[in-house]
Amino acid sequence: MRFLFFLWGLSLISVGSFSTVRPLCHDDESFALLQFKQTFTINQPPSYAPANSKISSWLTHNSDCCMWDGVQCDENTGYVTSLDLSSSYLYGSINSSSSLFQLVHLQWLNLANNNFNHSRVPLGVRQLSKLTYLNLSNSAFSGQIPSEILQLSKLVSLDIGLNSLSLHKHGLKSITDKLMNLEELVLSEVEILSTIPSNLANLSSLTSIDLSDCRLHGEFPIGIFQLPNLKSLNVSFNSNLTGHVPEFNRSSPLEVLGLAFTSFSGMLPDSIGNLKSLFSLDVGGCNFSGPIPSTFDNLTELTYLRLSSNNFNLGTLSWVGKHTKLTHLYLKSTNLFGFISFSLRNLTQLKTVHLGYNHLTGPIPSWLANLTQLNILWLQANNLYGPIPMSISNLKNLQILDLFLNQLSGTVKFDLFLELKSLFYLQLSGNDLSLHINPNTNTTLQKFKVLGLGSCHLNDFPDFLRNQDQLEVLLLDNNTIHGQITKWIANVSKDSLVILDLSANFLTGFDQTLGTLPWTGLKKLDLFDNKFQVSLPIPPPSIISYDISNNSLHGEISQMICNLSSLSYLDLSYNNLSGFLPQCLRNLRNLSVFNLQHNNFHGRIPQIFLEGCKLRMISLNHNGFQGPLPSSLANCTMLEILDLGNNHIIDFFPSWLDILPELRILILQSNGFHGILTPNANFGFPKLHVIDLSNNNFSGKLPSEYFQIWKSMKSFDAGGLTYMKANGQVQISINGWFFILYYPMTFTIKGIRTEYEKIQNIFVAIDLSSNRFEGEIPKIVGNLRVLHTLNLSKNILTGSIPLSLVNLTNLESLDLSQNMLSGEIPMQLVDLTFLAVLNVSHNHLTGPIPEGKQFSTFENSSFDGNEGLCGSPLSKKCAGSKDLTPPPSIFVEDQGSESPFEFDWKPVMMGYGCGFIVGVFVGKIMIKRKYDWFRKTFAVGHPT
Ligand SMILES: *[C@@H]1O[C@H](CO)[C@@H](O)[C@H](O)[C@H]1NC(C)=O
Ligand SMILES: *[C@@H]1O[C@H](CO)[C@@H](O)[C@H](O)[C@H]1NC(C)=O
Ligand SMILES: *[C@@H]1O[C@H](CO)[C@@H](O)[C@H](O)[C@H]1NC(C)=O
Ligand SMILES: *[C@@H]1O[C@H](CO)[C@@H](O)[C@H](O)[C@H]1NC(C)=O
Ligand SMILES: *[C@@H]1O[C@H](CO)[C@@H](O)[C@H](O)[C@H]1NC(C)=O
Fold this sequence. Notes:
Strand content: 25-35%
Mean pLDDT: 85
CATH architecture of the domain at 507-845: Alpha-Beta Horseshoe
Number of strands: 65
Protein name: Leucine-rich repeat-containing N-terminal plant-type domain-containing protein
Radius of gyration: 34 Å
Subcellular location: Cell membrane
Transmembrane segments: 909-927
Bound molecules: 2-acetamido-2-deoxy-beta-D-glucopyranose
CATH topology of the domain at 507-845: Leucine-rich repeat, LRR (right-handed beta-alpha superhelix)
Main location: membrane
Helix content: under 10%
Signal peptide: 1-19
């Protein structure tokens, strides 16, 4: 349902004056029509639609066909000139020999909204050379659009959109070359795959252009905006189409402008205020920036406005008060701040409002309830505080209310929402509300589809859920629900539930008599951060994402898990599961994230990674796995993270890892890996940016060949700052429910071993410490210019500290301690202004310690155990040192939000998309603890 606005096409209304002597319809034409009719069956119309197909009134060939429904004839000649069979439930094929093409006097042909069962557009259409109007839209045509259409040179209106059609390479240009009289051109969803020819701007009679979702690319010809008669322009959903919006003058007749989900950029010009007839403006999901022009005031005819998800400047909502005709207002993620503006109160026609993902603050105004037409209200992910106003119960038409992730508080009675009889989507999670549910609440008549009652201070499963048999999403996370999941709970919406989140409660297990879990269509199940003390519960085979991490599960993994063939995300980390991994895990062919870290598994990692492996993350850290590694891991060519740290794997460095083109993070730390590191040809991890081989038995020289080819350690990804994540989407009836799963990682940074629950792609680190590497530190290490952390400590390295280290200008932590390094510390290292941790202790370094800048912040322990070092901070003075005052310290503060890590945080964010991909985040939110941080980051990163 992406097309909210319709083109105000020519609609044929028979208003012709009644002529007394009109010839009857010609027999051959009436025969042709009847023959045409016979090639189709008439589908049963849907219950909500008018029951009549026009064609069913066509009965005998004796009657005058000019009188039939949908047929019109020329008053003088009696020839059929117009045929309108739109929405007639026709089903069947149509080809060039169809008797339809005998109606050569046709000027008007409308076959829209039927089902021609993948027919090609018939070449016979060229026989209808008098056509001025041709509409074949949404009628299940497929294949290439034939060039015969170009012979219809009289065409004024051509609509062939919403089929599975494509247009060959120069197709669009030939249309604009040949069909010079076009006023209306609709090619939506036709696969065009080209740029837009600039001569489209020469067709000065054009009033309406719809090229939405045509996979167009290149720069949009600006002249098209200036077509003197253009009322409607829609090029939405061409993500590779670039362009900018020009100045408009007051004579522009534009009424509809759709640029949504393109790559249009730049500012919206002030002169947009000149478009006094504009009633629909959709620029959602583009790259527009700058302010929302104050001249928006002048667009008083607007009924539909979407500015969502651009890069507009911070601004307020105050400009909105004049748009009193608005019915749909989408301002998701437009950098709004301040209170919900009182001017919104003027917009009494509003049906849908999206103000989510902004910085709005203050209470939810009680006058909002005066907007009584409201069906849909999105306010999620703002800073709204205070109670939910009682007046909200006046919004009798409300169907969707989303208040997720604000700072609302106070007690709210669930009965309040039961007064909203149409409400089927209620999302209160992520606030600090105390939801009071009357135990006698009778919701038999009110069926919810989406119910978010996370962090609502619930101590029990709400009893009214017993009557809810249509729920698709149920979120009860972050409450204080204790005990077992009993039988009745497992029966809640047994057949409809798709997403269930019970995370962060005190649940201990399932009623033993249940066997497998009963929800037959469940796709996402979150049970993490509970007290489950049972063996691993097995979700139904429909499951896609299953997270039961951070419980006390014990015992072995049941082989039954291998039946979950749709499973893509599996997180069993932080439990006490034990035993061998079952060989049958190889059946999980869709697995993308496989997280078993911090359990007690042992034995070899089985050969479960088959050809076509889709795994992107494997974490087996902190188990008792023994080596060697399964070579089948090489099948996982999409692997981004491999974490096998803290096991007992004994193997050579797996050089086949080199050929995993996507590998970004490799952690083999604290195992029994040994041997020499040499790259396998020149592949060598083009994307690697974290490698931790510490605490193994590697020997030989440091791998300078690798240092040479680790491209992604030399410069940052052009893509800018993102978190490493897996995106997921689960379909529910209203639309998709998006979620983002961040990869966690354990790493030592600045000397402290820490678990990071979210990794930025710009974090670059090498840890080769505690091995038996020998020889010199190769100069080439200075090429890895974006390194944050370099740890080569506890090896047997000799030689001096290479001067090239001064090139590592992002370095925050450098540990070379406990080696056999000699020579002086290069003075130039004082220029590493980000360096917060330096350790060169226990080497054979000599000479003066560099002074000033960062070096004045390091303590004795950084330099201990080097007989020959002298100078501050050591007490040993250097011979012949002059007492110079060191330059002032420019200690760089920890970068706060720009630090590559966010600590102690394991978010799973989910979004809900409805129609226009409006989103909601739900999930693993430690709302109270990490609330502020969460607010900051997700506002940046979420797709439209
Ligand atoms: C946009 O361009 C990219 C890169 O050329 C291509 O992979 C993608 O399919 C294009 N998208 C559309 C909608 O045409
Ligand atoms: C806005 O409307 C006012 C009054 O009609 C007019 O004076 C002004 O020029 C308009 N501004 C723009 C940018 O169209
Ligand atoms: C509300 O609408 C009236 C009439 O259209 C207008 O005069 C007034 O300025 C509007 N209020 C705000 C706050 O924009
Ligand atoms: C909202 O409606 C109520 C009752 O219709 C009215 O008394 C009140 O003044 C309205 N509030 C505003 C801010 O318009
Ligand atoms: C709940 O309401 C329905 C419909 O009004 C009624 O049939 C049913 O008996 C009620 N249930 C209870 C437990 O009161």
